# Entry
Amino acid sequence: MKKYFLIFVFSLLSLLFLSPLNTYAASVSTYGIEYCVQNNITTLCNTGTNGSFNYAYSNNRVNHISFLTFNTNHDINVSAGDTVTLSALFWVTNDTINNLTEVYDLGPQLYGATANDFDIISIEPVDMTNTIFWSQNSQLDYYDISYQHLYIIRLQAKNNITREYWRLRWDIDLSYSTTASGTYRFRVNVSTGSPSNDYLILQAIQGISNSQNQTTDAINNMNDNINDSSTDGANTKGSNFFANFGNHDNAHLSTILTAPLRLFSAMQTECTQPINIPIGFDNSTNGAIPTRNISIDCYANFWNREDVQTFRTFWNLLIGGPCIYGLLVLLMKVYNQALDPLSDSLYTIEMHSSSKVSKKEGSEEKV
Amino acid sequence: MINKILEGIFNLIISLVNVILSPIENMINLLVPSLLPGIGVVGDFIDYVLSYIPWVVSILGLTSTTMAIISGLITAIVMIPLTAHAIKLGIKWYYALKL
# Structure
């Protein structure tokens, strides 16, 4: 029976070491320099027992502490690769505080530091609002804890930092009402050290994670490419195959091959400049400069005259009508040919004669 | 993936055209070097003749409406068989892949 009782007592003691109170006691075992600012008046907080700051208020009034700040004359000497650990606690103690109306806790920070200077290893906020840890007879002699907040922040100074000293700052905006004098305490402990093993392990894990993400992205890109049914690029490629077909490519043969198409294109081009026909050549320049040019204007000036419009209409019917009729006949012939499911013939523009090569059932014959 | 395959086919066609025509051009340059300027003169002559086509068309006095109808008919005559041929070719490929 005695054996089981001892085990029970030791179990209770173990739970005591695991409690947040134990964390708090370890973090603030050495006090930092404490400053308080109330209504923009800086006061050294180190006026009470154990460096605490005591501030008395009258009964039944709403009190407001604006930006209780720890930010003055406490610089940290930081070298590249060092770790910075901030453990800070703010709390209000009073046996008769009846209403804590508003608290804005912006958290501790290294004033002036940016993400380029430090990596945040961990932020461990411990909210202990309305939690009573100590009785009146505890070692710190506080009771009825109304609000307290604990932060432990670990930072890693990067290798490219250019400054060696950093200033601490913690801003808290607090509104409350009380019926008696209150006690407000704010303590910060700062320590620096070499890079922790946890940080190095975290960095290694982060590197593995980054590599894994890159591999995942590559696999996803490959899957996207496989599942992509778009053919826009191929269409552009096919269009460029003909668009980039130069007239003087392939030993100038392209000029001859594309002559029918360019003839068709030239037929649709409006005449805007008169043509110049060189007549005679100057022997002194080996024929490079003609002796004279005959310039003939476009006939648009003639055909656009008002007194010619009636004749132009009749002329268009006379010339254009047979041309269009012949083209329509040819179009219907080609159309009927295209509808033949057994025909693989392809109509092309020939320069010398109109011939078609048809291939039916594996045999070729000239038509 | 389909896009890359089709692009690869076009690249293959372009490469084949260049591979086939390059030896011919090199052979002409090597064996009959005077032929190349001759072909060039033919091409330049075609270009010179084609430069007079708009002036010739202006002599005919055809209106833009008439020319648009003629151009549209010629385009249809060329494009209808080409489109039908492409559709038949696609169907043929489909059956070939299906087998």
Observations:
- Chain A has a mean pLDDT of 59.
- DSSP finds eight helices and 15 strands in chain A.
- The first strand of chain A starts at residue 35 and ends at 38.
- Chain A touches chain B through 62 residues (CB under 8 Å).
